[in-house]
Design brief:
mainly alpha, 7 helices, about 0% strand, elongated, TMEM42, EmrE-like, Transmembrane protein 42a
């Protein structure tokens, strides 16, 4: 049996993958630029410079790649919501599942942003994510208080 925390972590990772897929499919020409870079590595520089004005496979290949990234976006979102709902069911509190998913999403987004898009984050971003992860640690270490029925009757 998978715990609610694992479901929450997976939901956050899938949310980050879905966001990256959206950026690839709907954003600027990231896929075309990646294709051009790959084509330059596969062919010799001399061949590439002589035929630079010719049509390359990248001129049409980025369109099916964008469609595939769009499909990945919807698939990851569907699975992410499934895992998040399982995390809500298996975690001791909804706050714990939500914070775990959010923290996992932030960290995964940073890693994917660096790997795919070459993004960097300022020191203030890292301070914010550290505070978020500290809050996550506090939530994970706290135990839920159970109110007995007798205590509830005394208040009435």
């Amino acid at each position: 049996m998978i715990s609610g925390d694992i479901y929450a972590l997976l939901a956050g990772i899938l949310g980050a993958v879905a966001s990256s897929s959206a950026k690839l499919s709907l954003g600027a020409d990231y896929l075309k630029d990646m294709c051009d870079t790959g084509m330059k590595r596969w062919t010799t520089e001399d061949h590439w410079s002589r035929h630079a004005e010719e049509e390359t496979p990248c001129d049409w290949l980025h369109i099916p790649l964008r469609l595939m990234c769009g499909g990945l976006l919807f698939t990851c979102n569907a699975v992410m919501w499934t895992f998040f709902s399982k995390a809500l069911r298996h975690c001791s509190s909804s706050a714990r599942a939500t914070v775990t998913t959010t923290a996992s999403n932030f960290v995964s987004s940073a890693v994917l942003g660096k790997m795919i898009f070459g993004e960097t984050h300022a020191a203030l971003w890292w301070v914010g994510i550290s505070l978020t992860l500290s809050g996550l640690l506090v939530l994970h270490e706290s135990t839920p208080q159970i109110v007995s029925q007798e205590d509830g009757k005394k208040d009435n």
